[in-house]
């Protein structure tokens, strides 16, 4: 299934750079400043043996709801990857700064699940935000903690990556909580994903609304 959505993108940062927790961070300028908004479409990746509606729904808003259960199948038969229900955005890009942003809510009990990725087409992630330790958010590219106690509350998340210089940044509720650098070949293609990928708990579920994209 493909759907049209207006989106946003922002500036880059660096992987081994400054890291702040959400509580320690100070308000920043608008992360989307200097960027142009664009529209994108998505396709839902879900366990191959289930209909999309068994793991993904759209409710009033729109609000996009994605969940998986422990033991779910991968998105394609024979795949060695973990279970997922993810919105795979259609725009593929390289050597240009892009940003994804959304309001996000993570259900209590979600553990060991990735909720947002800046994904490389040949593997690897510049940003890989996942949930551990009772609602803590981590960037597992460098296993950096960026926020705690995020279960059961709406928060605004911005993720920005510029492949031209390898710079990435993450904001929570307008506060920059992570910057770093991720090196990759100039030919590498990137795209955004959000939803839930993998779980160490019985169920992982996340909700997204006001999803937007920006680019330089």
TrEMBL record:
InterPro entries on file: Alginate_lyase_2, ConA-like_dom_sf
Key words, A-Z: Lyase, Signal
Lyase is among the record's keywords: yes
Pfam families in alphabetical order: Alginate_lyase2
Keyword Protease: no
Gene Ontology molecular function: lyase activity
Record domain Alginate lyase: where: 41-212
Signal peptide: 1-22
Name under which the protein is recorded: Alginate lyase
Species in which this protein is naturally found: Kutzneria buriramensis
């Amino acid at each position: 299934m493909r759907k049209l959505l207006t989106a946003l993108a922002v500036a880059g940062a660096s992987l081994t750079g400054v890291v702040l927790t959400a509580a320690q961070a100070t308000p920043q300028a608008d992360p989307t400043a200097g960027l142009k908004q664009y529209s994108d479409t998505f396709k839902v990746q879900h366990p191959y043996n289930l209909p999309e509606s068994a793991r993904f729904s759209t409710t009033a808003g729109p609000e996009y709801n994605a969940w998986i259960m422990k033991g779910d199948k991968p998105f394609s038969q024979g795949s060695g990857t973990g279970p997922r229900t993810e919105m795979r955005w259609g725009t593929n890009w390289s050597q240009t700064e892009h940003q994804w942003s959304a309001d996000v809510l993570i259900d209590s009990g979600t553990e060991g699940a990735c909720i947002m990725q800046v994904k490389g087409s040949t593997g690897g992630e510049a940003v890989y935000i996942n949930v551990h330790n009772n609602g803590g958010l981590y960037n597992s590219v460098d296993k950096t903690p960026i926020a705690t106690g995020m279960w059961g509350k709406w928060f605004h998340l911005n993720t920005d990556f510029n492949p031209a210089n390898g710079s990435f940044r993450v904001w929570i509720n307008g506060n920059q909580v992570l910057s770093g650098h991720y090196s990759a070949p100039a030919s590498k293609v990137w795209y955004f994903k959000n939803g839930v990928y993998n779980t160490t708990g019985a169920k992982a579920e996340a909700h997204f609304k006001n999803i937007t994209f920006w680019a330089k």
